[in-house]
Amino acid sequence: MRSQILSLYFLAGVIPFCLGACSASPPQSTEKSTLSFQETVLRISVQATQERVEQERMIAPLDTHLEQVLGQKVDFIIAQDYQESVEMLVDGRANAVYGGVVSYFDALERGAKVKPLVAPIDADTIRPWYRSCLVVAANSSIKTLQDLKGKRVAFVDRSSTSGYLVPVTALKQQGIDPDRHFSQVVFGGTHGETGELLATNQVDVIATNLATYNQQQEEGKGENLRIIWESDPIPHAPILVSRDLPPELIKKLKQAFLTTPAGIKDLMGAKTVGYTLVEEDDYESIGELRRQFNLSGGSN
């Protein structure tokens, strides 16, 4: 069953994209930073999507590339969860974040002055978008969304776009309320940990994304899994930067991401082929979904 919940992406044309050297740039902040380019330490919080050792391994080559282009040290800080990555922006521990779309709106709602800079380009679609999906065991009797009533369901995190917001929106459009129609609702914390809940038969279905599912298939871990629902395209998670960063640093950071060598993995776990510029309007459709179904406010 295919969902129609994201058709406004195409009706409104809110997923423009460009590859390589793109001439269109996000609007620059009119605010002035009190620190110079050289004096500013770039501190990027990263949402926990993998086991810590694996995430540190994924960060290393991107860290090296950014430091080479910027000519200065870059500090990556792995957050404990989705919420802490936003808190780091709010309390000043970080001035950029490598996180999800929902976290962007969470940060804005909490007063963080941030804007999206770039987003990964999906290796399969060659576009800056990906898909959410609901996955069950291959031998499960569950075939449709309606079959989920009375079942045990695992989401990733309330601040996860593909692991919560989008699938919950699809369920609500089918008249299925997770608070009333499921026998149990749990949150895995990361896509990997959520997958383990299904693998160990602790739940009947999990919400995740197609990239994670495909990765499991490639690693030989997904032969006993089956997708029962897949979303329309979702705009890829943006790299957010503080509007208080010096304009010169923002410009150099943009250049650094757009020239990322092939083979450097997306830190959220998706298989990507570089980055492209994005703007605030590219994510308004997600903001509208949150407002429409009263899902704003992250984990609150």
Please tally the β strands and state the result.
13
Q: Could you report the average pLDDT, rounded to the nearest whole number?
A: 85
Low-pLDDT residue intervals, each spanning 5 or more residues: 1-33
CATH-scheme architecture of the largest domain: 3-Layer(aba) Sandwich
Structure class: alpha/beta
Shape: globular
How much of the sequence lies in strands comes to 15-25%
* Amount of helix: 25-40%
Number of domains: 2
Would you give an account of this structure?
- This protein is an alpha/beta fold and 300 residues long.
- The chain folds into two domains: 8-124 and 237-292, D-Maltodextrin-Binding Protein, domain 2 (3-Layer(aba) Sandwich); 132-230, D-Maltodextrin-Binding Protein, domain 2 (3-Layer(aba) Sandwich), CATH 3.40.190.
- Helix content is 33%, strand content 20%.
- It contains ten helices and 13 strands.
- The chain has helices spanning 8-12, 52-70, 82-91, 101-109, 161-173, 178-181, 191-199, 210-218, 247-258, 284-292; strands at residues 42-46, 74-78, 96-98, 114-122, 129-130, 132-137, 152-155, 184-187, 205-209, 225-230, 234-235, 239-242, 272-277.
- The strands form three sheets. A six-stranded mixed beta sheet has the order 2-1-3-12-4-13, sandwiched between helices. It has a five-stranded mixed beta sheet with strand order 8-7-9-6-10. A two-stranded antiparallel ribbon has the order 5-11.
- Helix 2 (52-70) packs across helix 9 and helix 3 (82-91) crosses helix 4 (101-109).
- Residues 1-33 have low confidence and may be disordered.
